[in-house]
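Q: Is it fine to ask for two folds in a single conversation?
A: Yes, each is treated on its own. Send the first.
Q: Here.
A: Result:
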Amino acid sequence: MKNFMEDVVLEVLEEALETNPEFCRCEKCKQDVVLLALSKIKGSYASSPVGEIFARVGQSDRQVRTDALLAVMQALEQVAANPRHDGRSNLTEKR
């Protein structure tokens, strides 16, 4: 079983990081953003090959991506205001 919205959130997060270079790119902050965003949007789960096809088709829906972008942007703001990383993280790490 897989939540296919996680794929959408990860894609949208990478796009958002491209346009927001000031945001921390450490793994802890990125994971926090993903978890917060996923908690705000409806999941899209599949446990069979047919269900996976429907879930993947839904990923390209404009409203699904818009909802994911809104959730990611809100999560980015929340994590930036309250980061949980320690001072030893590479805060400007780039991919």
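Q: Second one now.
A: Result:
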Amino acid sequence: MSRKLSAGSWGLLQLMLAVAVGAQSTASPPTSVTLFNSGRVLVRRTLPLAVPNGLSALSLGLGVFDPVSLTTLDPGVTVTGVRFDPSSSEEALLRRSVGRHFQFPRAPNGTVSATLIALDPERWKYDSSGKVVFGRPGQIQWPAELVPTAPTTDVTLRSDRARQSIKVMYETSGAAWNASYRIFLGPQGRVEGVAAIGAGPLNLADVEVQLLAGDIGRAPQPQVFAKAMQAAGRVDANAAYIEGVPTNESVGDVHIYTLPSRLSFLPGLQLTVPLFEPTPARGERTLTAGGGLPYYGGFEQQQSEDETPVPVEVAYRFERKAGTPFGDLVLAGGGVSLFDADNAGRLQLIGQGAIGHTPAGKELLIPTGTAFDVTARRVQTDFSTTRSVVPNRPTRVIALASYRVTLQNAKDSAVVVDVREDRGGEWSVVESSVPSQKRSSTRVVFPVTIPAKGTTVLTYRVRVVW
């Protein structure tokens, strides 16, 4: 059965709703920080401070930060001066206390009063006699209100009206994040990505956290700020974890990951946040043996008849087509660990590498080391040079060089090794036992198939001009 509200009750309900809406609209926005891979931190805060109309001086507890970066986010407020001393040592307190009176204990129950009149060296004036002494009259008993628990900043502001809070933005340093990926190979392959976050000296409660991936450059850091960050010292490590994955958006030419919940930073805090849900991933292994030609300039006949070992480099390629779960992921640069199962089904770490910042749809190629069961040896089998002399032009050298590459495979299955030659300038492959593939003006590849437990010999001849 419905019941109608009386006029008085309806009015009271409207008043309560208005108060609730007003409270929500005037609530201060949460503190938010953006962390960079480099250790830079951008902080945005709303400070509950009474700011009078006109010019005023306020003390802000911002911790250690770069004073040059301090600005206000309120259109009607301007910062006209900043005085920042990052040190909380007694020496720093004395610098801020010239002209102040201090009490010094005297046995048995007395005290003596003196005024600090100068430093370097310390000079004190006794209040009773007016005489000045070099050296401290005794141990200073500091009033609690003069000893800050954190660095303080004196700021001069000009405001167009009286306010009950002020929005500020500034940069600090020490906290950072890095992306790390785990790729599991095989038929049920998948990729996992996490962000490892270190708070460093940050001490902020209940903040929104964004992680910036990209290259924005860097301005020179003032030496005074660098020294202040060093003075912050090292901290003990804590650990924390949050659930959920960040949202990802493009801002300008960088990408921003926003954590799913707020976080309280404590000095030394370390935590790991998934960057995305585990995603299916299928890749292929590639094997590459490097060439014998220098990239630029001339080269000489090989003096030794012995075959030289050539490392066979291992890499994993992931195609990442657009419209697929893995292809649509935006990957911040970071380290990659690859795992595969042994015969008993145990996962083993088989390779590690790194990737750069990778947009959606771009292929991944992750170098992970060198092959164990696939080997290569190279020897130069022929070499000759001629000189091309053209009037009014520099003399050019034309070299013909032949090579033999012996590849062996100890695996139970056939493999393909790309024998690669990279060379700038004018050059070409004259002949080869395996057809060459010209990948670019500077790269030629010979894809050599090696049977299981077998050996394949590649021979080729190149013409090089310099």
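Q: Anything structural to flag on that second result?
A: Two points. The radius of gyration is 35 Å. Helices lie at 7-26, 90-95, 223-231.
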